[in-house]
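Good morning C.,

I know you're traveling, so I'll keep this short. The sequence:
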Amino acid sequence: MSGLPDRILAPFGRRLCPVVAHARYGAYDVISVLDAEGPAPRPGQFYMLAAGERWGGGADERPFLPRAFSVLRGPGDGTLDFLVEDVGPGTRRLCELQAGDGLWLLGPLGVGFRAPAEGRRPLLVGGGVGIAPLAIWQDVIDAPALLGFRDAAHAEGAALMRGARVATDDGSVGVRGFVTELLAEEMDGSCEVYACGPPPMLEAVRALCAAEGVPGQLALESGMACGFGACFGCVVPTRSGYVRLCVDGPVLDADDLELVA
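The tokens, ready to paste straight into the viewer:
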């Protein structure tokens, strides 16, 4: 496992791939696509997605930019699963896709997770749609997961991972509170943390890792326009300067960050 690369290079250009399944998990949709010509991604890498039709409305409306999504699962048969939440016109259109519809893919892109250092036990921490890259990573390393959600409808996404402890903001599922409270209970000096979720959650994870001297790998979320470093729209500050999240991330070491914005 330690010899696996953290990046698989994407083929040139985007590919129009057929949607083969659509499943609903509470507040989330899982869109499954057959990418017969693309390489298998590394956990933590992402794709730029755009619906094959009706991507941007009517004749007087500008088309939507592609959206960046981490791979939720890739079983190795060419199928890729993506976790989507309807939070606006673009994601709503993706959530409408059904088997037989077309989806434009560009990817896999970015840098994925690395195996934990020798002697360290991996611990996965996710919030909301940030569970996506952790699910495919759990398939590789079989690590325990701590997941945080807003409410019961969103917590149905926990079914996508195995044996997860769950926290919800309203206490409707699992324990009441933040997933970082579960992390503080579970963390010890022998673990290595893998996390993805909204910036406030990742900042709390980063601070906990720093306080305990524990290594962490954070999959950051950022708005991306191109996905391959041309637009500089997803730069984030690190201790050594700004990096483009789409080519230098989205997975960054927690100790390279002074603050998760």
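Safe travels,
E.
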